[in-house]
Amino acid sequence: MAVYTTIADDELAAFMSRYDIGQVISLAGIAEGVENSNFLLRTDRNNYILTLYEKRTNAADLPFFMGLMDHLSAHGIHCPAPITDKSGQILQQVAGRPGALFSFLNGVTAHQPNVVKCRQLGGILAQMHQATADFTMKRDNALGPQGWQPLLDSIDDSQTDLPAGLKSEAHAVLQDILADWPEGLPETVIHADLFPNNVMFIGDKLTGVIDFYFACHDITAYDLAICLNSWCFEADGSFNVTKSAALLAGYDAVRPLQSDEIAALPILCRGAAMRFFLTRFYDWINTPKDAFVKPHDPMEYWSKLRFHLRATSAASYGYWS
Amino acid sequence: MAVYTTIADDELAAFMSRYDIGQVISLAGIAEGVENSNFLLRTDRNNYILTLYEKRTNAADLPFFMGLMDHLSAHGIHCPAPITDKSGQILQQVAGRPGALFSFLNGVTAHQPNVVKCRQLGGILAQMHQATADFTMKRDNALGPQGWQPLLDSIDDSQTDLPAGLKSEAHAVLQDILADWPEGLPETVIHADLFPNNVMFIGDKLTGVIDFYFACHDITAYDLAICLNSWCFEADGSFNVTKSAALLAGYDAVRPLQSDEIAALPILCRGAAMRFFLTRFYDWINTPKDAFVKPHDPMEYWSKLRFHLRATSAASYGYWS
Known about the structure:
The structure is a homodimer.
Chain A: H1 9-17, E1 24-30, E2 36-43, E3 47-53, H2 62-74, E4 92-94, E5 97-103, E6 108-109, H3 115-131, H4 145-153, H5 166-180, E7 187-190, E8 199-202, E9 205-209, E10 216-219, H6 220-231, H7 241-254, H8 259-263, H9 265-286, H10 298-310
Antiparallel strand pairs in A: 1-2, 2-3, 3-5, 4-5, 6-8, 7-10, 8-9
Helix pairs in contact in A: 3-6, 3-7, 4-5, 4-9, 5-9, 6-7, 6-9, 9-10
């Protein structure tokens, strides 16, 4: 949740003069995302999202993100579509920051996605993977396997309230994951952060996908592993195989999984759990105790990782071919 | 800026089932107000604001606030109108908190209100004062003159970065203000916090007033003094008498000021500046240095107070009768 920047009257007027989108009737900072400032901008013609990029977003990555959302929108994926100004520009300077205007997506994020929603998630994920096949811009995954060991090494757990020995245990598990990490699997642009709070629904109908600011090139099926982690565990930590079966079936119906991708699901799920465990472990220790945004509990993903260590094949996730 | 509480899917569904307002197509937490959590709720029929009251709002005051907004709406004042559920109830329990649904007001708040806006502000303020004449619920002003000395006494300035001697100087000025505080002036319900961020405009046209959570009974013209403080000083601390003249003329045209109210404007302005100086002084010292919401600079209102100490009559504010 955020809105770090406010927009002064004259800055808003200058911004609006660059577009042909009607007169402002409402501007509200909205509490979505912790990385950027987002505003719901209503004009007498339509609803829009105005995003200002705060320091945590690397400005050099913005053309990739804009290009990706534009590409996906053009391929029929419902996501925020960047809107060009009268001169054809997408990126703007607003209140001293890079900013961009996007189409507004109807829908509500699901905190507790059900089986019907999981099936649709699989479908849209496969559509996104297919739609990016001819997207030519590139971005490396800064939080991919190469980054995990340095991230773990950088964590000072000498004064943590987390279980003793967690870091050394994580080190051992990480060695196994990196040793087993698959090679030669299909790669595409992946969303890389498709948690339930980034997918919109009206009732049970999926209406769109948001927040592409972790998108990058990596193993296609790794994106699926991230979703299996974030959509298919219940609040009590149990794994709901009906949900994962629906997610995989929804995906497979659009983009049939290859046999090597299917075989790699357990290791990819371990890697995905490790990636979110590591960033949460780091944030847990490095976030000031009285910060407004509370860090997520890393033990949630440690528990998920332990489930995946016991998974022997894709059948553990309800995939039966 | 806030949104402290999130609404789970089943809680939203339960809430919606109590109303006859259509199907949800969007729910976004918005960054308005620091006291409560506000959500922009869009259905296939209309836009609404859903407010959840956090701990800082006294639940015992909610019936007064709801009643006031309902009363003002019924009298043609554009403000959030509380919406009743199918059984006629306004106050609900949502996510474990008291909450209420309101009509959505178009408009954008003005950070730098101009003369045209100041004139309209005067008009709507007078309309509100007239409209509450037959409103029968009561609420004392917890931040009125009786509260100023105890508030100042409670401030520990031993380790502040503010000018040395500020507290003792404030004490002396406060004694004078309390000694001169007027008696016998007309009293009504006042908004008591009608800063520019609580008034909406489309272009230069005033479209509504929000945030009634400081509303109370007090001296009617004291509300005007609060507006003179918050609308008529420029960013550099200078007083814009063209704006104040427009504000007073806009007010006077709707509800003609009595001679005793006119004469009391300087002392009322001193009191209003003191009230906001004191709460900011307190917050400046008592807000943790790394808090997400930064406290306002109390010296802004100390500087305004010094202007009012030099004002000798209503003519200093551009009121010429």
